[in-house]
Design a protein that fits this description.
Number of strands: 14
Strand order of the largest sheet: 2-8-7-6-5-3-4
CATH class of the largest domain: Alpha Beta
Strand content: 5-15%
Shape: globular
CATH topology of the largest domain: Aspartate Aminotransferase, domain 2
Helix content: 40-55%
CATH superfamily of the largest domain: Type I PLP-dependent aspartate aminotransferase-like (Major domain)
Radius of gyration: 21 Å
Number of helices: 15
């Protein structure tokens, strides 16, 4: 018997599904390292450099020797800057003590589920969903309840569908607008309906707003916490610097919540990671207090890429491509291509399409099954326009042979 065979892992560990998005990115990079020309549309991070205001702040922190422990919930200067950001951008007024800085927005989400979700609690998860939500719910002992959104309407959240899934055990709604993977943005009018739903059913709302600055063609992001003071008292706002400031590797996210929740999250974090990296906190401070030119330029470029990728995908017969309003993803489904033959294979679902595109076209996308939508795939346009053009040419060439 090997050592591996004698190891007993917990049910908690055995039940975790690996991140499909990270797996695709890893596979694409491995093929590229082996010499294959791969266009990677699987990655979920901006391809832009971190703004100078952030990198200079980090460099200065290193020079100053700012390399020791900080308060678990984050340095006061950063929490103050986040408070000012929330007030300026979202119309939300929080005390610094109601803000907790963590090791990325994913960590903030984890903390929120850990302090709000009891064993057996049901959590409403609009579907398609980001791959991590159901896993974090399960790690907290909760039960994810998936609520399908309407594809013809661009994967818009339907409050009527939410109501149909409420039971006496429902405790939390997770909301992600703009959405990963669909790019859908909940319009302000519908956000009011969501707020009313939360109050009526006495729920907590975890609002993942990490893509808030990445909205296009007049779409408007509104935090549900800004709809009503009572909703704010039941909401944990999650955000970070990863997407808007191209700082994915710096790992700084934050949560704003009612004081009791924020204190619980900070205490929990204190026994898990202690503080976020001191230098990265200073970098985030630089990003939040610096000028917004780099963010504006990035959003403008993303919008141009979005328009181009959507137009190319819409031109491929059979694919159904709802137009995203935010984030940097397009989420087409097989539509009329379901059952077609491509490169000697039958297209039964998005996993088949993803494998064909990787092996036949050298294009990496993420299968939709990872997001609760087996007949779809996710394209990321967080890539250069030159690569997007090359990748779309390859996709079109392969799928033009479908029969």
């Amino acid at each position: 018997m090997t050592v591996e065979e004698t190891i007993r892992l917990t049910k908690r560990a055995l039940g975790i599904e690996p991140s499909a998005t990270l797996a695709v990115d890893s596979r694409a990079k491995a093929l590229a390292a082996a010499g294959k020309d791969i266009v990677n549309f699987g990655v979920g991070e901006p391809d832009f450099p971190t703004p100078p205001a952030a990198t200079e702040a980090a460099t200065e922190a290193i020079r100053e020797g700012f390399t020791k422990y900080t308060p678990a919930a984050g340095i006061p200067q950063l929490r103050k800057a986040i408070r000012e950001k929330l007030l300026r951008d979202n119309g939300l007024d929080y005390d610094p003590e109601e803000i907790v800085v963590s090791v990325g927005a994913k960590h903030s989400l984890y903390n929120a589920f850990q302090v709000l979700c009891e064993v057996g609690d049901e959590v409403l998860v609009p579907s398609p969903y980001w791959v991590t939500y159901p896993e974090q719910v399960r790690l907290a002992g909760g039960v994810p309840v998936f609520v399908k959104t309407d594809k013809p309407a661009g994967y818009k959240l339907d409050v009527a569908a939410l109501k149909a899934h409420v039971t006496p055990r429902t405790r939390i709604l997770i909301l992600n607008s703009p959405s990963n993977p669909t790019g859908a943005v909940v319009p302000p009018s519908e956000m009011e309906a969501v707020a009313e739903f939360v109050l009526r059913h006495n729920l907590y709302l975890i609002s993942d707003e990490v893509y808030e600055k990445l909205v296009y063609h007049g779409a408007v992001h509104r935090s549900p916490a800004a709809v009503d003071p009572e909703v704010k008292r039941r909401t944990v706002v999650i955000n970070g610097v990863s997407k808007a400031y191209a700082m994915t590797g710096w790992r700084i996210g934050y949560a704003a919540a009612p004081l009791a929740v924020a204190k619980a999250m900070a205490a929990f974090q204190g026994h898990v990671t202690s503080n976020p990296t001191s230098i990265a906190q200073r970098a985030a401070l630089g990003a939040l207090t610096g000028d917004s030119e780099a963010v504006t330029a990035m959003v403008t470029e993303f919008e141009a890429r979005r328009d181009y990728m959507v137009s190319r995908l819409e031109a491929i017969p059979g694919l159904r491509t709802p137009e995203p309003e935010g984030a940097f993803y397009v989420f087409p489904s097989l539509g009329g291509l379901a059952g077609a033959r491509v490169a000697g294979r039958t297209l039964a679902d998005g996993s088949d399409l993803a494998m064909i595109l990787l092996e036949e076209a050298g294009v990496a996308v993420v299968p939709g099954v990872a997001f609760g939508k087996p007949d779809a795939v996710r394209f990321s346009y967080a890539n250069s326009m030159a690569n997007i053009e090359k990748g779309m040419d390859r996709v079109e060439e392969v799928l033009s042979k479908a029969s």
